[in-house]
Amino acid sequence: MPDQTPVQIAWVTRDLGATEAMLTALLGARKWVRMPGIHFGPDTCTYRGEPADFVADVSLSYAGDTQLEVIAPVSGTSIYTEFLEGSGPGLHHVCIEADSPAALADALTDAQDRGASVVQTGTMAGGMEFGYVSASGAGVPYLEIAYVPPQIRAFFDHVKQEQK
């Protein structure tokens, strides 16, 4: 299993601006970097075991060393739309990192072996791989486990430097 220290806290919302403003006021995030229209396609993403095809707007910032992520679904069905329909906007997941794609796969298998459901998986442009595990018994809907390759790490480091 990867290091258990959360590196990201994420919210799902219908209104990026309102959630960014709330998190800025509460957690001191200074600058948000928006990535509109991120497409997760059926060749690289699954939702509840089936190919997924959806689009989401994403915004990133930092509070200290913790990445803050705000996700607003745009189209298609995903754990983000499911969450909004079932719970409304709010805290969606915390994320821990795996140090390799193999470690991510092992962590997801381990989670399933322990009775958790892997709800969504995917690979983003740039090679970032992720899997969401149902974690509702832990007080948060999902735990994300992600492998962050060097080029995405460099982007995250840039976003983090914008906070200083």
Describe this structure in words.
The chain has 164 residues and is an alpha+beta fold. The protein has a ten-stranded mixed β-sheet with strand order 2-5-6-1-7-10-9-8-3-4. The relative contact order is 0.20. The mean pLDDT is 93.
Please outline what is shown here.
The protein has helices spanning 16-27, 79-87, 101-113, 150-161, and strands at 8-12, 33-40, 45-47, 50-51, 54-63, 66-75, 90-98, 118-123, 129-134, 142-147.
User: Could you give a short account of the major beta sheet?
Assistant: 10 strands, mixed
Strand order of the largest sheet: 2-5-6-1-7-10-9-8-3-4
Percentage of residues in DSSP E strands? 35-45%
Query: Strand tally, please?
Result: 10
**DSSP summary: helix tally:** 4
| Helix/strand/pairing category | alpha+beta
Q: Compute the average pLDDT.
A: 93
Query: Helix-strand pattern, N to C?
Result: EHEEEEEHEHEEEH
Amount of helix: 25-40%
